[in-house]
Design goal:
By secondary structure, the protein is of the alpha+beta class. 21% of the residues lie in helices and 21% in strands. It has 11 helices and 19 strands. A hairpin with a 4-residue loop joins strand 8 and strand 9. The radius of gyration is 29 Å and the shape is globular. The N and C termini lie far apart (77 Å).
Length: 555
């Protein structure tokens, strides 16, 4: 017999079931939206062909420069804060007073980068207060926009070669020398141990860093970048007195110190004369191997590199790149084999014209390319120690054939001819992009420069050279519409697509060559006036494990 309460119970149970189904569908929708809006640098291992150093927009234009400086300034936030801001689209007005930094634009951090008070002014851009620096050492330069907290976005340049020469010291005892040999206000003074301005002293933080300041409080300085929150000792460093010595400053970019000593001795007297010629060390990059401070005799190679990318634009530094065959294999193996979506929101293949030049230690080892490193959100993760090999060979460009070390797990599984991957080390590659600060960028400069010389910090240059979309490669109009209608680009299980045959037969050499030729033809059609790839072919990837790690135990 049916109890009076049973119909009501059944209706209640049905309502609960419908609510649970609706909640499940809503949660699935949120996951899809979040994946589409996934911040750069959160991609998992295997997505390394498009992991960004930081969301860096094109370098031209005032708003682009401002955004770059703002992102530099945001680098001291926690990653949780970063994700919250990226997910909800909010923007914070940075008030240095709230962070203990005093009134807006009160931090004269720009002096650490070679700017004077006359070079920079405080200005409000968008909702951010920034130092806008239009001159350096009193001479006009392309405008730099620097975060007002720690001047993220500023770049350092050494004093110009036409800086005034110091006055020769008099024979009488004198204070520590002033002039170009001593550090400027608020600049590092670890090497010189003296300051150029009276009233400034060289205060030591630790054994690695000292700075010219007017005062110093022992302990942590909370207006320093968060990554540098370690105690200051505030010990005043003083350059050792110079006796019977003449010091001269030479206008040169060879950062060395040499001393020549001659002596004559008789039975009754001994006379010793010493002449010392010193030049300024560049702050930051100081490799143990002095050959990394000089141009190499290696051959420079200019060729195309490619990157599988979403709709964001940022520099290829601290990134993994590929030749076109390597990019096609990455697309096939990791991106198009997901139903209803392309992994990480990839939409296109970017092309860059790259020039590379090996350092002298690397070319002496018989190589033009080093090991191909992987990057996780801009952080060099190996194989083995990135730091150790960068110290030995400079910031080299790395390469590997996809089916060889360090991705030998793909041996006999890659059917795109000569598929190759590359690595381009940039600034501060020991950290993820949101952890960068000016000190890390200074001491780890990376290899990017305008005209590669083969010096340790000048091994490659790049320029944008076009793109093709994945849609036009496959011959469809709109991927989302294709997916909604039941299309599937490629199914790993069947080795075929649904409503598409472009990616069928992944392990067939001929089919892979046809797909590669289709991509090559699209670049020719879209950029008919550009240099053809066959006119600037990529050099062979000559990385050799035994030559590269000769005498070293990888660690």
């Amino acid at each position: 017999r049916t109890m009076a309460w049973e119909p009501a119970a059944r209706r209640f149970a049905a309502a609960v079931t419908k609510f649970a189904v609706a909640a499940t569908l809503l949660a699935a929708a949120v996951v899809v939206v979040r994946r589409q809006r996934q911040p750069p640098g959160t991609e998992r291992a295997g997505s390394f062909l498009a992991q960004p150093l930081r969301p860096q927009v094109e370098r031209s234009g005032e708003e682009a420069a401002v955004e770059h400086a703002v992102l530099q300034q945001r680098g001291t936030r926690s990653r949780a804060d970063e994700r919250r801001l990226e997910e909800d689209g909010s923007v914070e007005l940075y008030d240095s007073a709230e962070a203990g930094g005093g009134p807006l634009c009160s931090n004269r951090c720009y002096t650490k980068f070679g700017f004077t008070d006359d070079d920079c002014e405080c200005s409000s851009h968008l909702v951010w207060y920034l130092w806008v620096c239009k001159k350096r050492y009193g001479k006009p330069i392309p405008t730099q926009y620097c975060g007002q907290k720690n001047c993220g976005g500023c770049s350092y340049a050494p004093p110009p070669l036409d800086a005034p020469s110091p006055i020769a010291p008099s024979p009488a005892p004198s204070p520590a020398p002033v002039g170009p040999t001593c550090a400027a206000d608020w600049r590092p003074c670890t090497a010189s141990q003296c300051c150029s301005t009276p009233g400034f002293h060289c205060y030591q933080k630790d054994s690695f860093y000292a700075e010219c300041r007017t005062s110093c409080a022992v302990g942590i300085h909370y207006n320093d970048p968060r990554q540098l929150w370690t105690p200051w000792t505030c010990k005043i460093l003083e350059a050792p007195p110079k006796t019977n010595a003449t010091e001269t400053l030479t206008s040169t970019t060879t950062w060395t110190t040499s001393t020549a000593t001659s002596s004559t001795q008789t039975s009754t007297t001994q006379t010793t004369s010493t002449t010392t010629t010193s030049t300024l060390f560049p702050p930051g990059y100081r490799p143990a191997d002095e050959s990394l401070l000089r141009p190499s005799n290696a051959t420079a190679f200019t060729f195309y590199m490619y990157r599988v990318q979403n709709d964001m634009n940022y520099a290829p530094e601290n990134q993994n790149m590929a030749n076109l065959a390597g990019a096609m294999w990455y697309l096939h193996n990791e991106i198009v084999n997901n139903r209803l979506e392309r992994r990480y929101g990839k939409t296109r293949i970017q092309r860059f014209k790259v020039t590379t030049k090996a350092t002298q230690p690397l070319i002496d080892a018989g190589l033009n390319f080093g090991v191909r490193y992987a990057f996780d959100a801009g952080n060099c993760t190996g194989p083995f120690s990135c730091k150790k090999q960068f110290e030995k060979f400079g910031y080299f460009v790395g390469c590997n054939y996809v089916d060889q070390f360090p991705t030998q797990q793909w041996a006999k599984k890659v059917h795109y001819p000569n598929a190759t991957w590359y690595s381009l080390p940039g600034k501060c590659n020991s950290r993820r992009y949101w952890q960068h600060d000016w000190a890390c960028d200074l001491f780890e400069p990376g290899g990017a420069c305008d005209d590669p010389t083969g010096e340790g910090n000048c091994t490659y240059s790049y320029e944008s050279a076009g793109q093709i979309t994945i849609d036009e490669l496959e011959g469809i109009q709109d991927f989302k519409d294709f997916a909604v209608r039941g299309g599937w680009e490629y199914n790993n299980g069947t080795d075929k697509g649904v409503h598409m045959s472009f990616w069928d037969d992944k392990f067939n050499d001929t089919a892979c060559e046809i797909r590669l030729a289709r991509a090559q033809q699209l670049f020719k059609e879209n950029y008919p006036n550009d240099t053809l790839e066959e006119e600037i072919p990529a050099p062979p990837c000559d990385f050799d494990y035994d030559l590269f790690y000769a005498g070293d135990m990888p660690e």
